[in-house]
From TrEMBL, chain A:
Coiled coil: none annotated. Keywords: Signal. PANTHER family: ABC TRANSPORTER SUBSTRATE-BINDING PROTEIN, SPERMIDINE/PUTRESCINE-BINDING PERIPLASMIC PROTEIN. The lineage of its organism: Bacteria, Pseudomonadati, Pseudomonadota, Alphaproteobacteria, Rhodospirillales. Pfam families: SBP_bac_8 (PF13416). It comes from Roseospira goensis. This is Putative spermidine/putrescine transport system substrate-binding protein. Residues 1-39 form the signal peptide.
Automatic annotation (TrEMBL), chain B:
Belongs to the binding-protein-dependent transport system permease family. CysTW subfamily. The lineage of its organism: Bacteria, Pseudomonadati, Pseudomonadota, Alphaproteobacteria, Rhodospirillales. GO terms for biological process: transmembrane transport. It is found in: Cell membrane. This is Putative spermidine/putrescine transport system permease protein.
Amino acid sequence: MPFSTPHLRVSRLRATRLRVTLAAACALAVAGTAGSALAAEALNVVSWGGAYTKSQVEAYHKPWMEQTGNQINSIDYDGNVAPVKAQVESGNVTWDVVDVELSDAVRLCDEGLLELMPLDELPPAPDGTPAEDDFIQGTLHDCAVATIVWTNIYAYDETQFPDNPPTTIADFFDVESFPGKRGMRKIAKANLEFALMADGVPPADVYDVLSTPEGVDRAFAVLDKIKDHVVWWEAGAQPPQMLADGEVAMTTAYNGRIFNAIAVEDKPFEIVWDGQVWDLDLWVIPKDAPNKDLAWEFVKFSTATEQIARQAEWISYGPARQSSVPLIGSHAEAGIPMGPHMPTAPENFKNALQNDFLWWADHADEMNERFNAWLVQ
Amino acid sequence: MATTPAAPPAAPPDDGVLRTNDGVPLKTTLARVNRRQKLVAVALVLPLLGFILVTFLAPIGMMLFRAVDNPVLQEQIPRTVALLDAEWDGASVPDEAVFATLAEEMIQQYEVREIAKVGTRLNYEQGGLRSLITKTARTIARRGEPPWRETFIAIDERWADPQTWGIIQQAAPRYTLSFFLAALDLRYDWQGDIVEQPEREQIYVFMFGRTLWISGLVTGLCLLLGFPVAYLLATLPMRQSNILMILVLLPFWTSLLVRTTSWIVLLQTEGVINDVLVWVGLVSDEGRIQMIYNQLGTIIAMTHILLPFMVLPIYSVMRTISPSHMRAARSLGATPARAFREVYVPQTMPGVGAGSILVFILSVGYYITPALVGGRTGQLISNFIAYHMQKSLNWGLAAALGTLLLVGVLLLYWLYNRLIGVEKMKFG
């Protein structure tokens, strides 16, 4: 066995070296995870994409990242909150902050899928007015803080109607006087309201009428008139695209998207404010979000007077805080004064309807069922 | 043996049994080796079995379960539903005891923010009950006191309506068929009888019908287009048939989304085909043909995408058919058409059957293509399953629709087996 000794020695040496390497690798790995646990306070912030997410990135994310050194991953979605339910129920939450519509915020909150928010911690207005008085009424909820007022409007392509442009919500449903394809969101919400207002129901009575079976029939009868002329859209970025492609002559849309196309992309579009159905966008934090404390810090930061005003300079959505209004200047890129383009500007707000989230929380299931049945037949 | 030490220990008894060197009967050794080999084989397929179990069987089992699972009322207001079952006559307003129990349970659930689950569940049965539950719970949690019956009715008249209580009772059982009923456009009324949904909300039976019809049509079109291609592939000289094969396989390897969006580029009203037609003068600029975002778009795109699934099985069967069969038929006096019809085609049937059932089953569950190009009239049942998974969050109904689809496919498969025989099917 004279040969085995050196061989053994070598292998022991090798083993030692291996152990050292392994230990070093382990140490590195541990240091790596520890380091990343400290530095990678990355928030997953989920929002609607396109021009809207850009306004949030410019007004909220960038300043916050600069100030705190944390990172934000901006994730796009189409407003469908099923993942929140799926994530919370499976105990594998990956979204930290989500931008949702009011009816979804209320519904998710009621079902215990969201973190409660300590609203008294929200920053006061610059003049010291407490947040709960500064926010517009109805924009603060147990699990949600609103940032903006946005609205469903319809817009048309000027070049399609050079002489006799549409001016009222009724014109949208009148394909004889205003020929051309229509774009509409593939959902019952807001479309039923549009239809009734076009049929002469004053905004204040819309939900009373919709609460009767005859009222629902009436709304669908109005929709019937343009059914064969409609191209349906689902994501907010689609309607300006459809208008630009000439796929439709007029389309319902979120007002900020159309404004962006007009101001930044120089498109010949025009917004009709008559019969607008306005709504809120709110921040919510899914229950047991991985970084929920940090998420709340971000929500507080982004709903300060200054930040909300900055956002309104990137997209024409109205601020949820009264103290933000005087701070809003001109569009950050196009230099257009933002005031007249806000849904809440008096000129635009004359015939406006607030989306009734309680009514929709109750009736969304049956209305969508009926809407879907109507759609396929 | 121990008592006779003289005997050599290794000497095997001479009983006619074949033994190995160490004296173990050959049969035993063989069995042992076989067993070891079997174990190795099982160990090799174990990862696959585990994979199938986790990613396939378990989700299907969970889906089947979710379609009948109905835990909400039993978990949230168990004593109320028990009391209703035991004491309520089903026609009048329940007595104070029921109201008091419900009040107590509602306040309890309100405080842990779970009461809206009850509202959401009841809202599937009748719109409006969601707010009734949340409103009542909110009110009584803040300032509610006995007598509960009067308090409830003062909050909302509907608590005095036996129908409300009937619906609660119908929605209570731990396992329910109501999602399956909803998936068939039926429902329980408040007295527990099965009735049809209001006509304007009936949709699923129609959608199942449309799904079967479009799947059948797509299968037929694939067969019509695929059979000649497969025939060419099988009969052309190697050089040409290889090129043709690449033409068949290239789209097959291309991403489904790319192929679908290519069809959008081609077919849309401002798209290539319409542009050409306008340029040639066949249609006017205003009269551009709507070929996409409707049923036609779904049928065209699905037929194209599923075509290789028809061509390949038929081709592989045709390759095995000897040309001498046709020559024999011809030499016995058959015309080419008759020889083809009576000798060649019957031999391709295993491939035709395999291709057809493959295409049909794939198209019954098709989702992404109809979603992208189907518009309003080209949606299939899977798009509604996705809708209930993602938008309405009614997972019970989505599961019931999915289960019905699965049962339908299995039924068709069984029928196919009875009529044609699965063992005759040849994929290649």
